[in-house]
Specification:
The chain is α/β, with parallel strands linked by helices. It is built from 2 helices and 8 strands. The strands form 2 sheets. It has a 4-stranded mixed β-sheet with strand order 1-4-3-2, covered by helices on one side. A 4-stranded mixed β-sheet has the order 5-8-7-6, with helices on one face.
Length: 126
Amino acid sequence: MEVERVDFVSFLTRDIRRAKGFYVDVIGLAIESEGENDFELRLGQVTLDVFDASSIGQAFAPSPGGVALRVRDVDAARMELEAKGAVFEGDTLDTGVCQMAFFHDPDGNALMLHRRYAAFPDGRQP
């Protein structure tokens, strides 16, 4: 099998309207499509599908692994999101190769602002 690409990643929600407000109004993502129980957002080269699992008889559970959102400037993006009500966990982390800032959507799905600034071991630039 050869995987061509990732088409979408899913997060579950208990409240479509609240989730849509967070992803559109707070983070500023564009909606690609939406239905009664879900909506899809453009995350760079991947689609994020947010849906109400109860609409298909599944139990709700937040995604603890989450999604890393690559941004140009982690500190500036964090300040922008905090001004819109996003709550971050701890300080921005600088690992020596990248910066990361961790937060959650209203349903507890894990998100991260991320920017790698150091070259990879083989010399490739991020």
